[in-house]
Amino acid sequence: MKTYQEQILTIRAQTLAIITEITESPKPTYDVENQSVSWESYLAQLQETVTWCNAQLKEQENTEPFEFRTTAGT
Hints:
By secondary structure, the chain is mainly alpha-helical. The protein is built from two helices and two strands, in the order H-E-E-H. A two-stranded antiparallel sheet has the order 1-2. Strand 1 and strand 2 form a beta hairpin. Helix 1 runs antiparallel to helix 2. The longest helix is centred in the last third of the chain and has 24 residues. The N and C termini lie far apart (49 Å). The relative contact order is 0.15.
């Protein structure tokens, strides 16, 4: 089973791949059967997902186990 960090990295990588794909051949916003498809909104959502992943990874860095090493003075 993947760790939390590995899951976030996977989500970010997949989202970046989708962003790459849709920006290589952008499509217009259109309506189909009373449903609007807005590629700009979709791209914005994907970008928000990447931002969220980056924040989660940064938070994870700050919560990694750590150890303080000290020496006693005489």
